[in-house]
Structure formats: C-alpha cells, structure tokens
Amino acid sequence: MYYATPVVVVSECLGFSACRYNGDIIHHSLVARLADVARFIPVCPEVAIGLGVPRETVRLVKRGEEKRLVQPASNRDWTEEMKTFAREFLEMIGEVDGFIFKGRSPTCGIKEVKIYHEGDRAMPVEKGMGMFAEQAVRHFPYAVIEEEGRLMNAAIREHFLTKLFSLALFREVKAERSMRALVRFHSEHKYLFMAYSQTGLKQLGRLVANRERLPIEEVLNAYEQGLHALFARAPQRRSHVNVCQHLMGYFKKEMSAKEKQYVLELLAQYRAHQLPLSSVTSVLKSWAIREENEYLLQQRYFAPYPPALMDVRDSGKGRDAV
C-alpha cells in the first residue's frame, strides 16, 4: 500500500542533537522509526534565539494577564525573541502535517507546562502550553501535534499516526486537484472514517458526490474542513466494534456459525480491553484475502500507517487516547 511522506516538525533534542538545557539528547523510539518514512524539520527554539548549551533554564512567568518567557538566573526576558523566531520559522517552513514536541518544555510543551507568578520561584500557579508550541498551534491549527511522552501510550500513538498519514495523503490529493483522486481517497478511507464518525463519513460522502457540480477547489476546501472535524477526537471502542461488524457482513454467507461466533468473541474481548484491535482486524483481513475482496484489501482501516511503525508496547496506563 502506498503511503504519503508526512512533513513533521520535531524538537531537535529528540534524537537530532544534544541541545537540552543540560546538554542531553533524548532518543525516542517512534521518532527513530519515523525517520525512514517521514520528512523531519528539527528545531530547538531556545538555541535558535541565542540560548547556549548547556544553559540556565527558562520558565513561563505570569505578568498580569500576560505570559512571558524568562530566565530566572539573570531575570532576562526572552519573550520577544521567541515570538519573532516562532513567527518567522513557522511562516518559512511551508506545509506541515504534524509536530512532535518535547513535553513540559516552557517553549515546546503542549500540556502541563508550569507557569509561575512573577517574582515567585517556588510554586507554579497554573499549567498551560509552551510559547513556541502555542504559536505553532495558531499557525497550523489542523496539524496533528503531540508530545514525545504521550506518544508512549499506544492509543494516543495510534491516533497520532493515523491522522498524520491521512493528512499527508490528503495533501497530495489537494495538489492533484482531481475529483478522481478525491473519490479514490474517500473510498480507501471509508471504514477508517466510519470508526471516527459515521456522521462525518456521510457528510464527506455528500461532498464527494458533488451533486451541485461545485468547482474542485470548493469541494476540496469543504472536504478538508470536514476531515479535520472528523479527526478531532480518537475513535471509541464501540465504533471499532461497529466497523468490524460491518466488515463481517461481507462474509456472512462464507463464514460458518462457529467462525462468526469466534470473531464475535474476539470483539467482546476487545471491548473489554482484553485484546488489541489488531486481534480482530487481522482475522477479518485474512477473510478478505481468502475471498479476494480487493475493495476491502484497499481499505486503510487495516493499515492506516506503515506497518513498520506498529508497536505493541504501551505506557502501562491502559487508557484510551485523549
């Protein structure tokens, strides 16, 4: 199966250079595996604005209602330098499909970044988003953005990779400006989109039908908006169960009663968090192969991203994506 090459901005300390405040480099397994199938744009905003390696730490400080980037050791304010760099960098890099940031960083963190009161070095008063990451979200509101730590969770990682490679492929469809390419994209993603939202799938289907004979640019723009809305949240387990039941329907005449019961038992175990989804989909794909169902074998639902990126390890928290 063909996969588009996603463009991913990544914190430079995640395997590219020893640029952390203490001179460390972090080796991240997913970033390393993605290197073979993605185009990375590494960046360390702190080094880029002139902070050295190693360096005194910077932190986010609340000054009234304003958030500032300050180096406590010298009381040096780096806010304007960071905002200028972020604006120029983000405008320069072109189209981007995703971001992988260093978590809890005052520049790159997207969640749980500590924010302090001015003059109080002891306890944070709230938590929020890093200054560079905040600009990235504003500039690329529809890109998929995650922290390296959260990507250790299997469900979060699954959603991130699914969205990342889907957006990358749609970027190529947009560039082709062809209804045929859009129809192919939508057809291949039917059951993947169904898992995310049946309502969203129907809305996208109406756009592809284009009964109003709208110009291709208008259709693509509307489809893109619908695609981002569909990917806003990860699928629920019950939605995956529904999709698998739909896929079973293709083989209702070929499957024996015992074979159907076996798949239903697998689905029940998946619903109860006792098995991964792949335990069910691998069985259903084997039926598609057996019956030579080319339509199902082209479905991205079975492999929404390159199989080389699959990893059964998890953080141990056992939670679904959030």
Describe the structure in your own words.
There is one protein chain. The protein is of the alpha/beta class and 322 residues long. It folds into 2 domains: 7-152, no CATH class; 177-322, no CATH class. The chain has 13 helices and 9 strands. The strands form 2 sheets. The protein has a 5-stranded mixed sheet with strand order 5-4-3-7-8. Strands 2-1-6-9 form a 4-stranded parallel sheet, with helices on one face. A hairpin with a 4-residue loop joins β4 (66-71) and β5. α8 (198-209) packs antiparallel against α9 (216-230) and α11 runs antiparallel to α12. The longest helix is centred in the middle third of the chain and has 23 residues, at 154-176. The chain is elongated and about 75 Å long.
Q: What amount of the residues lies in strands?
A: 5-15%
Rg, Å, rounded: 22 Å
Number of helices: 13
Largest sheet: 5 strands, mixed
- Terminal CA distance: 29 Å
- The helix content, as a percent range, equals 40-55%
Shape: elongated
List segments where confidence is low: pLDDT < 50 over at least 5 consecutive residues: 314-319
Mean pLDDT: 94
Number of strands: 9
**How would you write the strand order of the largest sheet?**
5-4-3-7-8
Secondary-structure element order, as H and E?
EHEHEEEHEEEHEHHHHHHHHH
Protein name: DUF1722 domain-containing protein
Pfam families: 2-thiour_desulf, DUF1722
Domain DUF1722: 190-306
InterPro entries: 2-thiour_desulf (IPR007553), DUF1722 (IPR013560), UCP037004 (IPR017087)
